[in-house]
Write a structure and sequence with these properties.
TIM Barrel, 8 strands, 276 residues, binds zinc ion, eight-stranded parallel β-sheet
Amino acid sequence: MTPPIPHHGPLVDTHAHLDDDRLRGDLDDVLRRARGAGLEQILAIGTTAADSRSVVAIAGRHRGVFAAVGVQPNHVSEASSGDWETIVDLAREPKVVAIGETGLDRYWDRAPFPLQQEWFDRHLRLAIELDRPVVIHCRDCEADIIHQLGQLGRPIRGVLHSFTGNAEHAAAFLSLGLHVSIAGMVTFTNRSLDGLREAVRTIPDDRILVETDSPYLSPSPARGRPNQPAHLAWTAAFIAALRGTPVEQFAEQTTANARALFRLPVEETLEEMELP
Ligand SMILES: [Zn+2]
């Protein structure tokens, strides 16, 4: 049995795939449980043009839900002509607060690497043009992303999401201007994640974010089950303990960080969502 989900204070889930089948069918309950766990706002992330359109629609229907639009690197091969124009159009919608997710992925090998780099570059330029933060996916590509961001010749506003690198990678991303967001994997007992836990202790208070990456990678004690935004309370408690910070203070700090980075309107929260 999984213990009840705790409530430690206000939280913002900075990365959830609310359009995924495992969440979308049950969205009102998912959002209700999220409110019960202290979540005030959720950033719903697009991974294709169609999915981006869908998360923008979800954000339009639910107070406290905001959207990021982009084509994730594992999907750039499938993109058809017109998909980029769709992203550019959606980026100007009122509840779209970020560009992404974009980035690079050497793990799945689903798209030629030069094509991934080209799409990553497009997203970065759009984010700069519109002055929006960028949401960056990185799988076995820390050095590649550090290199490509370095070539911009200017700091970039955004987040390295579901960070799994070491302290050296974290320092490089921070110096490029990014925030670093931690997902549920940090709670897994695998020794191979000790480097990540070490890195998490080194991120400055004002540059760390938290996320679920729902429905993927549910944190302990719900590991192996579909993830949902409410599970962020467990991840936040684990990270706070790791950093030696009271969890209520860590929740307040990461919420303030998310609101500052994504310019989330403080008055629009899940708490105020009108129930049908
Ligand atoms: Zn994602």
